[in-house]
Amino acid sequence: MAKVMPKVDVVLVGFGWTGAIFAQQLCDAGLGVLALERAGARTTPDNWATTFDQDELRYMWRHHLFQNVKYSTLTFRNNVNQTALPMRKLGSFLPGTGVGGAGIHWNGQIWRWLESDFKLRSHNEARYGKQATEGLTIQDMPVDYHEIEPFYDMFDKICGTSGQAGANPFEAPRSAPYPTGPLPMTYGPKLFEQAAKGMGLHPFPHPAGNLSEAYTNPLGMQMGKCTFCGFCEKFGCGNYSKASPQTALIPYILTKPNFELRTEAEVLKVERTPDGKHATGVTYVDGSGMEYFQPAEIVVLTAYQLHNVHLMLVSGIGQPYDPATGEGHVGKNYCYQTMSSVDLFFEDKLLNPFIGAGALASVIDDYNGDNFDHSGLGFIGGAYIAGMITGARPIEMTRVPDGVPKWGLEWKRAAAKYFLRNMSISVHGSSYAQAGNYLSLDPTYKDQFGRPMLRMTFDFPGNDLKMAQYCTDRAAAIAKNMGASKVHPKARKGPYDLTQYQTTHNVGGTMMGASPSGSVVNKYGQSWDVANLFVTGAGLYPQNPGYNPTGTLAALAYYATDAIKSRYLKEAGAPLVAA
Amino acid sequence: MAGNPSRAIDRRGLLALGAALGTAGAAVAGRDGMLAGPSRTFTNALPWDDGLTDAPEVTGGGGWRYLTEGEVGFLTAAADRLIPPDATGPGASEAGVVTFLDRQLAGDYGNGAHFYLEGPWQKGTDTQGYQSRFTPAQFYRHAIAAIETAVGQGENGKGFKDLPAERQDALIKQMESGDLKLDGPITSKAFFTMFLQNVREGYFSDPIYGGNKGAAAWAMIGFPGAHYDYSEWVTAYNQPVPVKPVGLRGRRDWQRS
Question: Rounded CA gap, A8 and A26, in Å?
Answer without folding.
Answer: 12
